[in-house]
Amino acid sequence: MILFSPPFSVIITVYAACVTRIKSTPFKQRKNTMTIALETLTQRLSYIVGENMAHQLKNDGLALDADVVALAVKDVMADTPSRLTDAEKRSTVEQVQKESQERQMAAQAEQSAKNQAEGAAYLAENAKKEGVITTDSGLQYKSLVAGDGAKPSKSNKVRVHYRGTLIDGTVFDSSYDRGEPIVFPVTGVIAGWIEGLQLMNVGSKFELTIPSNLAYGANGSGGAIGPDATLIFEVELLAIE
Q: Which Pfam families does its entry note (predicted)?
């Protein structure tokens, strides 16, 4: 469920959440000249553990030297003192975190600019379509089915069916697909929904085209909804609770 307003800040403090976003050269490849017969239970188990660890690290996109990883494992298993001081470990992790954040910010800025340009073009064309009304806020709506019931206010809860898509048609959420409508306070959703719901009569179905500033803005909502994404919702107002 993605409709509800996002928190004002997202705090990421776990080191793994930072390093797993590093997309660089994967495991450094070296010619394999070592032959080990995996005959004993311990040998086979050791290989499985190493293989699983390597798959995970490779999937995470970490730039690691496989020989140095093996060296660290050998050192720990042999109770050999660490080859790095605590200060060196801290500075390394801090540098990794800094580079990860810089990459993430650059990628988000690039995606944001792309989404803003594509969203503006889509909104401009959509505004020309028959039946589409643009409000002062920039919300665009079109009545698909007329209803004759009451209109909700900000103090109400509503029961709705909806389908949310990106401007390229990608469906990112749908109560229809889940097989049941949802109930929520009118003020408990994104700004474009709050405005749009109050324009609808019970029994009506609207198409809401929501600019990013009335949706999830620069942060996006994760998953398919990137930064500054324009969203389209088909909304069916079933009842006021």
A: FKBP_C, FKBP_N
| Residue (of 217, 214, 234) closest to 226 by Cα position | 217
Quick check: is 172 catalytic?
Answer: yes
All structural domains of the chain: 16-83 (no CATH), 118-240 (3.10.50.40)
Cα–Cα distance, 213 to 48 (Å, whole number): 49
- For residues 157, 192, 223, 17, the Cα torsion angle rounded to the nearest 10 degrees is -90
Q: Pick the residue with more confidence: 208 or 223?
A: 208
The rounded distance, in Å, linking the Cα atoms of 17 and 97 is: 9
For residue 27, indicate whether it is catalytic. no
pLDDT attached to residue 161: 98
Cα–Cα distance between 202 and 225 in angstroms, integer? 28
By C-alpha distance, which of 219, 194, 188 is closest to 141? 194
Given 190, 194, 210, 232, the catalytic residue? 190
- Annotated catalytic, 15? no
Mean pLDDT (whole number) for 176-200: 97
Q: What is the pLDDT of residues 117-160, one digit of tens each?
A: 999 999 999 999 999 999 999 999 999 999 999 999 999 999 99
Tell me how far the alpha carbon of residue 31 is from its chain's centroid: 38
Residue in 172, 182, 184, 240 annotated catalytic: 172
What pLDDT was estimated at residue 19?
39
pLDDT of 53 over the 60 cut: yes
- 53-78: average pLDDT: 88
